[in-house]
């Protein structure tokens, strides 16, 4: 049972091949045979963010060569593929259409089923490919550029939303703050690197909804607070742009921003785990690569006897492996194909 997975929701083209046959699987998890990724970061950098039209065009250029590369690396041919999976959303419409179009065409040519996978389900299940995979049930913190959610996960396809952001996502808060600090795109990793050199107690930034008693988040106010802080620093140092500020001043704002975002994520995640009565937390999505978040979650979970699992660092951000994996786990959980339905390519922006 070979599954080819294609991810093209934003600025990475990812393709992967997993084997979901009984001999290759372990505890309902297919084996990853090969995966390949092309990141468009360098292309979008000049514009300070993702340009949707350029993203779509680049996916068109990359998706077939990457598919060939993955099949070659695994020593397999397209004719051997039993199911084609692709990211059906959410994401940029034009970018998603490229992956969907290629997957549906491959499925039609091969006479094999095609399956649209929700992007967040891919992220959510990605820790199953790590050296320390979780077991169901668990609480999941999904933190990406577009989403911030806490979920209770009882099995493949059994997801209960416990709380989510009411405005910006955590990754968006990282990215927008980074932009204000002149750190370019993608902002999260750059802000995190600079924060390592700063004093996180230098500025008191808001921790929105920290004591709201529910499991929701709000990050939109934080970027306004960062903007106010930056303006104050510009006035104090009598300069007009962030680039003219002494580097340690910018690093202090970065560190204070990161501390504010991470504190809220950690406290709410631990509260969700406590409320669920479960002893397992899974963290997934791009912001899950953040080292301060990992440190604080590791410490908080250890103190409470909670196991915490992450995807491997290279599978935290968007990739094809998580899409092929999610499709494989669905097949192994008997969720596919739905009664009488052999092709499922619902498109979902
Ligand atoms: O999951 P992902 O690749 O794409 C979405 O589905 O959105 O997540 C991308 C997000 C971006 O906002 C990026 O800035 C953030 O993850 N990110 C980080 C780090 N690495 C990626 N944020 C904070 N620290 C990091 N090390
Ligand atoms: Zn993503």
Automatic annotation (TrEMBL):
Cofactor: Fe(2+)
Catalysed reactions, semicolon-separated: L-threonylcarbamoyladenylate + adenosine(37) in tRNA = N(6)-L-threonylcarbamoyladenosine(37) in tRNA + AMP + H(+)
Domain Gcp-like: 32-324
Annotated residues for binding of Fe cation: 119, 123, 318
Enzyme Commission numbers on file: 2.3.1.234
Co-factor note (free text): Binds 1 Fe(2+) ion per subunit.
HAMAP family per UniProt: TsaD
Family annotation (NCBIfam families): gcp_kae1, T6A_TsaD_YgjD
Name of protein: tRNA N6-adenosine threonylcarbamoyltransferase
């Amino acid at each position: 049972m070979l599954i080819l997975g294609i991810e093209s929701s934003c600025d990475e083209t990812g393709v992967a091949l997993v084997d979901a046959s009984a001999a290759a699987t372990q505890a309902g998890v297919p084996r990853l045979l090969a995966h390949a990724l092309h990141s468009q970061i360098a292309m979008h950098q000049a514009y300070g963010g993702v340009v949707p039209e350029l993203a779509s065009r680049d996916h068109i250029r990359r998706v077939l060569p990457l598919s060939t590369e993955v099949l070659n690396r695994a020593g397999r041919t397209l004719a051997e593929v039993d199911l084609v999976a692709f990211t059906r959303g959410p994401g940029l419409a034009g970018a998603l259409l490229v992956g969907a179009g290629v997957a549906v065409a491959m499925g039609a040519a091969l006479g094999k089923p095609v399956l649209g996978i929700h992007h967040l389900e891919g992220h959510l299940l990605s820790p199953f490919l790590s050296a320390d995979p979780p077991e169901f049930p668990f609480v999941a913190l999904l933190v990406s550029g577009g989403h911030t959610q806490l979920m209770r996960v009882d099995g493949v396809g059994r997801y209960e939303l416990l709380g989510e952001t009411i405005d910006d996502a955590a990754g968006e808060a990282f990215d927008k703050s980074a932009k204000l600090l002149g750190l370019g795109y993608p902002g999260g990793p750059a802000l995190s690197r600079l924060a390592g050199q700063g004093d996180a107690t230098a500025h008191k930034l808001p921790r929105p909804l920290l004591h709201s008693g529910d499991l929701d988040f709000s990050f939109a106010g934080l970027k306004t607070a960062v903007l106010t802080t930056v303006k104050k620093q510009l006035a104090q140092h009598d300069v007009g742009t962030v680039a003219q500020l002494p580097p340690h001043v910018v690093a202090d704002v970065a560190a204070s921003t990161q501390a504010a975002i991470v504190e809220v994520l950690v406290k709410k995640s631990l509260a969700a785990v406590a409320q669920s009565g479960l002893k397992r937390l899974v963290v997934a999505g791009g912001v899950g690569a953040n080292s301060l978040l990992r440190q604080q979650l590791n410490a908080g979970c250890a103190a409470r006897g909670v196991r915490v699992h992450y995807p491997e660092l290279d599978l935290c951000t968007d990739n094809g492996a998580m899409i092929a994996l999610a499709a494989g786990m669905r097949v192994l959980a008997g969720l596919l194909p739905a009664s009488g339905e052999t092709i499922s390519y619902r498109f979902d922006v």
